[in-house]
Each structure stands twice: as structure tokens, then as C-alpha cells.
């Protein structure tokens, strides 16, 4: 039979028998009463008995007398199913005692199994360790470091010396964890576990036991294995006192903290910048302010300054490099204002100042600071803008005063001129050459009157009658006219906002603004294009108002007129609202259109601005204060009087003789009974002597001795039911406040023609 067949025929109990007999430890099997029924060869050798002699003996026969009670307790535990491992002192056949380690348990058949290991080899090792300690102790006593050996449980087996408050004798046998703060114990345990489980070194720093003064010192500990063969029997801990080093580091950290606190109070960043001989550079030190200044961390530029140079504004890059090079060459302080441009497009202004010093090896080190001066630059820009606005405002005020002063006399001249020309036309045959000449003179006078109105509108002195209106309704009413004005080659887009807020403004003036802006947009487009009129409710905040000093924060209604035309560069866009400024050829514009729009909007308490780029079109935005309460006034064409003639009595008061003459001729020719006076005193005296009633008073507002408003008040007492029609070409008078007509006033703006006067008189009398 083959060997494989032989093994296959071996019974399990034979395997068990072989294993038991060949085991190095003693194997003892007894009954529940403690009588040995089987003991292997190693068990007999361990206790010095011949083979088989222990069978039949009792457990008490081989245990030392002092341990008999322990045996009873142990057997009772085994019978309950416990598994026990304990050290026992056993008695050999010759009576000698031997230290053993016994692992015992109850088998499934009820018998008791005990595996006995001789502890003499371990004891021998321990003796050798103690001998080695004795040999090393004299050497270790002179070592500057504290050296100790600990077992797996952390028990100190040896220590060469300790802190003055303790002695080695006090420490040996205690647990090393007890000498460190509780929070440090996990780190020490981890180091010992690493040494015993892997045999590898570990290093850590830990506070030691308190000294005589109660202060714990710091130690740097190196933990390594003490091995016998491949078994780690202890860990050697070598602790070097690093208290002085830690104190130095603490002082350095404190100084660094102070520097950080000081630098954090300095706007911007404190830094050291190094330029190496090879041309590379870095920031050896940068305060935390660098995160705000350059949006990088100090660590990112400690070895390389490339990230800082990458965000320098392209227009300032060369200048910065040249200034740094000059400072390095001359060793003079470096100062520079420059910009940085971040990836998101944000641009900031910076100011840097530093002093250089040479380092061994040829490097240059600058010490200095960098501050963000964007706010100052913006303040300077705003200051310049405000100064420009102030100059513009003073210019407007000067022109306004000039226009207001000239308006009265010039409008009187135009009124008489237009009146005489129109009267002359009535007396001249239509086919006469004189009719053509007179019509030309009348047209020129009307153009002069329009120019005067434009100047007054620009100077915010045009006389207006504000009403609560809906801009959407105005645009709707003007839509067909605007479309004809724009032409077929341009696309007109109207974008009225739903439920738009109301505004209070003079309707006629607002229509002028819309027409001027549309014409301006049309002229800016060559060929095809698009003009967009849009309304929207907006809120202007404090930031917007800081840039537009005459505008108050609040709710506004916006009208935007945008085009896809040629657009304007900044230097042109900044001047478009100046009077007499125009980019059109000579003879194609007066330069008052946008200036008039600006004045009308400002007079209404609003603001007008332009957003434009060359080649990208323009957008003019009008902001009018939103009216609180009120209902929009519906505007329809007023029915013209069926006839301008009449029979009523009219008192005409005018200090300008030529106007008085024209008006009297015009009204008398229409059937009215007209009385004239050169001033208010003369008019009062005349009425007091008249027996017939006066139906209508037509009076200039500004006159010597007594103005028109006072005259109307006094005549109302003498003539109850008297109608009054005021006339003026001047805004600073009793019936208007900064150009805004008082409520309930019948007013005729100078200059006017006889036909205009006749229609207005009839309207007042028929109302």
C-alpha cells in the first residue's frame, strides 16, 4: 500500500495522540474530581516524573501547599465552563518548585484539560533584563537625556534619572502615562503601540511631570524597540529636554503675533520683497493683508512672486518693472501708484512704498507696505466730476440769468414785431410781393421766438404748467407722429411697462423732449437700424445720486430712447448737454436740442443721462420723479373757438407801447371794446371812473409802479366776475415759481401773434 493510502487509513484519535505526545508544553487531562487520566511526555519531563507515573495522581499532588485553596476555586470555575490562564507554582517529584503558566478548560466530555508552560525561560529573560539594566545603569546615569524602558502596559522597568522632584526609585514600577497630561496620553500610547506592534521608531513631543516650581517641562521623545530575536520585550524612550527651544519658539511666535497684530492695523499689506540676481523674485514675508490687496495667500508668493505680477494692469506693467529696477540700481526708496486687474475684470488702484537693502549674494530686499487707494482715486474722480458739474451748473446759471434778463425785452420786441407783420399781412393783397416779404419776416420772428424758448428751457426758466400724466399714454398718442418722423428704413420699437407710475410734468415740454431725442436717435443712424422707446419704474439709490448731485434718491419713472447708431466716444458723450455744442455740420443744428431736453427734465425735478460707446449706439435715459397720488389728465385736442370775434369790454394794460398798440389794433378789429393803460396805477384810475363793466383784463405781469398780479387783485374788488389773462416773457415774476405756472392762472406766453391773442381771449371769455 502506498504512503498516501497509509495516511488515509489513520484514525483521527491517532492524529490526536501524536500531537499530544509531541507538544512542547505539558498537557494534563483529569476527571472532574481532579484525577489525571492522561499526561503527555512533556508534562512528565516538566515535573520530573517517569512516563505514565502521573496518571492516577490528583491535581493537589503537584501543586504547592499555599496554592491548594486557589486550586479548589479554579476547578470550580472550570466546572462552570470558564477558561482560565494563571501562573501556578508546581512541585516536582524531587520536591523542588517550578513557576508555570497554566491554561485550563473543561472538555465536552466533562474532563478537565490543562496546558502547562514552563515560566523559567521567561524568568531567565527577566533576569537578563535586570542584569542588563544593572550594567547600563552606570552608563545611563551620565547621559544628559532621560532614558527609560517600559513594557507593553506602559510600566516603567528602568529609568536613568528623572526630574528633581522625583527619584528613579519612585518612578520605576509606575505607569509612564501618569507623568504626562491627560490630553497627551493617547499620543504616548500610540507611540508605544507602534513600537511593540511594528518594531519601528516613533518621535513625539510631550510635557513631562511638574518640576519643583510646579511647571511642566517639554521633552522630545524618541521611542524605539528593545528586542530579543524577533520579539519586542520593551520600549526604550529617550526624552530630550526641549523646554528652552520651546520657550524660544514661543517668544518667536509672540513676536510674530505682535507683528501680525501691528500689520493688521495698517491699511493694506506689510511685506518684504526680494529680487534675486537671476531676475526671479518672491515675498519672503507678507502680512494677511495680501489676501485683500492681491487676492493671494502669503504662502503662494513666499518663493515666487509670479502670481502678483500676473495681475498687474497691462498698461502699468512696464512702468512698475522700470521703477523697481531703478530702485535696485540707485538703492533709493521705491514709491509707485499702479493698478491691478483681476480675472473677473475688477480693477483696483494701489500705492506702494518701500526701502531697499542689499543682501549677501547680490539679492535686493525691500521692506514696505502697499495700500489700496481705489477709494481715494474714486473720490478724486468724483471730486473732479463734481467740480465739472459745478462749472456746468455755473455755466447754466450764467446763461439762465442772461436768458431771463434778455427774455423780457426781446420777447416784447418779438411780440410787437410779429404783431405789426401779421397786421400788415391782413392789409396786404395775397398776390403782392410784399406779402411774401412780410411772411418771411414773420417766419424769422417766429424762429427767434423759438430760439428764446430753447434758451429758457435750457436755463430751466421756461414757463410750464405741470400735470399728472401717464408717459405710456403720451407715447401712445405720439406713436403715429414718431413713426412718420423716423421713416420707413428704421425699425421703431415701443416697450411701455405695464402699470407704469405717473409723473407730474408739463405735457408740451415732455413731448418736445421725446421728439428731440427721437430726432437725435434718427440722425445717429445711417442706413437701417432700430430706435427703441422704453418706459419703466425704477428706484435711484444713494450711489447713483452721489454721481448725480442734483438728483434725490427715490422712486422714478424712466423713459429710455435707444438707437443702434454710430454711438459716441466718452469725450463727446460728456458734452452733449452743453448749450451750442453739436457734432453736426454748420447750418444743420444749433446745439440747443439736447440742452433744452436737459433743462426741461431738470426743471421737472428729474435727471437725464446718456450711455454710449463708439460703434455701439446710444441710450438716453430720462428719470422723472414718480407722482404721489393724483390721476392722469386725459389730453385731447381742445375745440377751437368757432369765431375769434366778440363784443365784450377788455382792459389792456401793458408798459411796452408798441405791444399795446398791436394788441389794441388786433382786438378792436375783432369787435371788442378795448381800453388801454400803460401801468397798473393808470388802469385802476381808469376803471374807477368807468360806468360800464369790464369783462376781461389783459395785463403784463412785470410793469413799473404796480405789477399785473396786484392790479388783478385790486380790480377784482371793483369788478366782480372779472376774467384775467396774464402775459409775460419772463419767468421771475409773481405768477410763476421757477418757471412753474400757478394753478388756475390764465396765461399767454410772449411773444405772441394777433391771431394767437385773439384765440386765447376768446377761450378765456368762453370758459
Short description:
It is built from 22 helices and 29 strands.
What would you note in describing this structure?
The chain has 767 residues and is of the alpha+beta class. It has five domains: 3-118, Beta-Lactamase, CATH 3.30.450.20; 123-241, Beta-Lactamase (2-Layer Sandwich), CATH 3.30.450.20; 249-372, PAS domain (Beta-Lactamase); 471-625, Heat Shock Protein 90 (2-Layer Sandwich); 649-766, Response regulator (Rossmann fold), CATH 3.40.50.2300. 39% of the residues lie in helices and 25% in strands. It is built from 22 helices and 29 strands. The strands form seven sheets. A five-stranded antiparallel sheet has the order 2-1-5-4-3. A five-stranded antiparallel sheet has the order 7-6-10-9-8, sandwiched between helices. Helix 15 (507-523) runs antiparallel to helix 18 (593-603) and helix 20 (680-688) runs parallel beside helix 21 (708-718). The chain is elongated and about 170 Å long.
Comma- or semicolon-separated keywords:
767 residues; alpha+beta; Beta-Lactamase; 5 domains; five-stranded antiparallel sheet; 22 helices; elongated
Structural class: alpha+beta
Radius of gyration: 56 Å
Overall average residue pLDDT: 83
What is the name of the CATH class of the largest domain?
Alpha Beta
Spatial gap, N to C terminus: 146 Å
> What number of structural domains do the residues give?
5
Might you state the CATH topology name of the largest domain?
Heat Shock Protein 90
CATH superfamily of the largest domain: Histidine kinase-like ATPase, C-terminal domain
Number of helices: 22
In helices, the fraction of residues equals 25-40%
Please tell me what the overall shape is: elongated
Q: Describe the oligomeric state of these chains in a short phrase.
A: single chain
Low-confidence blocks of residues? 1-7
Strand order of the largest sheet: 2-1-5-4-3
